[in-house]
Automatic annotation (TrEMBL):
Name of the molecule in the record: branched-chain-amino-acid transaminase
Enzymatic class: transferase
Lineage of the organism: Bacteria, Pseudomonadati, Bacteroidota, Cytophagia, Cytophagales
EC number: 2.6.1.42
Gene3D superfamilies named in the record: 3.30.470.10, D-amino Acid Aminotransferase, subunit A, domain 2
Pathway: Amino-acid biosynthesis; L-valine biosynthesis; L-valine from pyruvate: step 4/4; Amino-acid biosynthesis; L-leucine biosynthesis; L-leucine from 3-methyl-2-oxobutanoate: step 4/4; Amino-acid biosynthesis; L-isoleucine biosynthesis; L-isoleucine from 2-oxobutanoate: step 4/4
Catalyzed chemical reaction(s): L-valine + 2-oxoglutarate = 3-methyl-2-oxobutanoate + L-glutamate; L-leucine + 2-oxoglutarate = 4-methyl-2-oxopentanoate + L-glutamate; L-isoleucine + 2-oxoglutarate = (S)-3-methyl-2-oxopentanoate + L-glutamate
Entry's Gene Ontology BP terms: carboxylic acid biosynthetic process
GO molecular function terms listed in the Swiss-Prot or TrEMBL record: branched-chain-amino-acid transaminase activity
Similarity comment: Belongs to the class-IV pyridoxal-phosphate-dependent aminotransferase family.
Top-level taxon: Bacteria
Length: 273
């Protein structure tokens, strides 16, 4: 297996990060998790948009191969081909170059890309409950992946302790925000609901794609601030990320008929077409 470091293919076992490293020292950067399938990046347009937004907010100059979709696709293709993969989960880690303490010395960025085999899953039905120990942290950078990573680590620990399939995070005001590693959606009265980005949830690429697909097919979509009771009164609910869409059968003990809901089935069909 190989990694791509600043555009150069390196055998994985021979790769080393040099110090100082601002990503390691200060979490000064972001990452993207992408799915490579059918010789391209799934939801590539949405990934690129989030990368560009993250770079702007964090004050980073994206390296040339990361600035447009054609260049990014060509870059990842090198790694996919060298690693003899057909479908892959790809992780792009971007961090600020140079050293310094909290105040950076440069806006230039370094990056590393890794890939591993990916097998699509249909998303088994899941039981969920609301987090008790962790809440989101709304900020100008909460939409991107990386700066708030510890919050999701703690959420994963709580989910594991409680034996849940999904843990649902609330914002500081108690509104529904997201799942531990996915966006949350629900259906009621012919409308699709999802929390607003201002709740501090990640601006998920699958979230953006699903909203675009739903709107294109005339399904009204509402983004807002919702108390947990709104989700508990839903007809169906599901989580979604780049890897899978997962219907929820129970939320905080309330049963939902998500898997059989006709609108959810239609949404999945629209997305697949």
């Amino acid at each position: 297996m190989y990694v791509l470091h600043n555009g150069r293919l390196v055998a994985q076992q021979a790769f080393n990060l040099t110090l100082p490293n601002r990503g390691l020292y200060f979490n000064d950067g972001f990452f993207e998790t992408m799915i490579w399938a059918s010789d391209g990046i799934r939801y590539g347009v949405h990934h690129l948009a989030r990368m560009q937004q993250a770079a702007a907010v964090l004050g980073l100059d994206l390296p040339a191969p990361l600035r447009d979709l054609a260049s990014l696709t060509a870059l990842l293709s090198q790694l996919i081909t060298a690693s003899a993969l057909v479908q892959a989960r790809v992780r792009l880690q971007v961090w600020r170059s140079g050293s310094g303490l909290y105040t950076p010395e440069t806006d230039t960025a370094d990056y590393v890309v890794t890939a591993q085999p990916f097998a699509p899953t249909s998303g088994s039905a899941a039981q969920a409950d609301f987090a008790q120990t962790v809440r989101t942290q709304p900020s100008a950078w909460a939409f991107c992946k990386g700066p708030n990573a510890l919050m999701y680590v703690l959420a994963g620990q709580e989910r594991q302790r409680r034996g849940l399939d999904e843990l649902l995070l609330l914002d500081p005001a108690g509104h529904v925000a997201e799942a531990g590693a996915a966006a949350i959606f629900w259906l009621r009265d012919g409308h699709l609901y999802t929390p607003a980005l201002a709740t501090g949830c990640v601006g998920g690429v699958r979230r953006a794609h699903l909203l675009a697909v739903a709107q294109a097919h005339g399904l009204p979509c509402l983004e807002g601030f919702y108390q947990p009771r709104a989700l508990l009164e839903a007809e169906a609910a599901f989580t979604a990320n780049v890897a899978t869409l997962r219907p929820l059968t129970h939320v905080a003990g309330v049963a939902l008929d998500s898997e059989q809901h006709t609108l959810l089935q239609a949404l999945q069909s629209w997305e697949a077409s």
